[in-house]
Write a structure and sequence with these properties.
- By secondary structure, the protein is α/β, with parallel strands linked by helices.
- It has one domain: Rossmann fold (3-Layer(aba) Sandwich), CATH 3.40.50.2300.
- The chain has 6 helices and 4 strands; from the N terminus they run βαβααβααβα.
- It has helices at 27-39, 65-73, 87-92, 101-108, 114-117, 143-164, and strands at 14-21, 46-53, 95-98, 120-122.
- Strands 2-1-3-4 form a 4-stranded parallel beta sheet, with helices on both faces.
- Strand 1, helix 1 and strand 2 (46-53) form a beta-alpha-beta unit.
- Helix 1 crosses helix 6 and helix 2 (65-73) packs across helix 6 (143-164).
- The chain is globular.
- The chain starts with 13 loop residues before the first strand and ends with a helix.
Length: 166
């Protein structure tokens, strides 16, 4: 897979990156935790990271305990409260990174212009070794499923950071 060209975002002083999954308690907060920690020391661009879910089932709740346990075990510190993705989040973000096809469909349903559509990518598009664009949902699975998601997220965020800081 070739990594998407983000040259239009290069040179900006600040970027808002929104991670999106279904419930906003497992994958997207883990991805936000990883990216937030990795970009904390960047001088330019300053990157603000948030996350949201395409469903509103868990709004106001904390992360799924295994997800937080796995990202903290890996050394990432991050506080999270679930929120719902809506049109205002699409407009505010510079990049919207989804975890799977369903998330992509829901987020894309908000699009009203080519500029908005151009913000939406699968997170794994930034991992040149990925065999799929999807990050599988580890909800209610063993820790090994969350560890696999963490590995995918780490590789993809490394590729994303490399693309944004070229």
């Amino acid at each position: 897979m070739s990594i998407p060209d983000l040259s239009l975002l290069r040179g900006r002083d600040h970027l808002l990156v929104t991670m999106v999954c279904f419930g906003n308690i497992c994958r997207s907060p883990m991805a936000a935790a990883v990216l937030d920690n990795k970009v904390a020391q960047l001088d330019r661009p300053k990157i603000t990271v948030d996350s949201a879910g395409t469903s509103n089932w868990y709004v106001g709740k904390g992360p799924n305990p295994p997800s937080k346990r796995i990202w903290e075990r890996a050394g990432y510190n991050y506080e999270h409260i679930a929120s719902h993705f809506d049109y205002s989040r699409l407009v505010a973000a510079d990049l919207v990174l989804v975890m799977d096809n369903h998330n992509h469909q829901v987020v894309s349903s908000y699009v009203t212009s080519p500029d908005e559509a151009a913000k939406i990518f699968y997170l794994r598009q930034f991992d040149p070794s990925a065999d799929s664009f999807e990050v599988p949902d580890p909800y209610q699975k063993a820790d090994a499923a969350f560890e696999l998601v963490l590995e995918m997220v780490e590789r993809a965020t490394d590729g994303l950071i490399a693309e944004l800081t070229r």
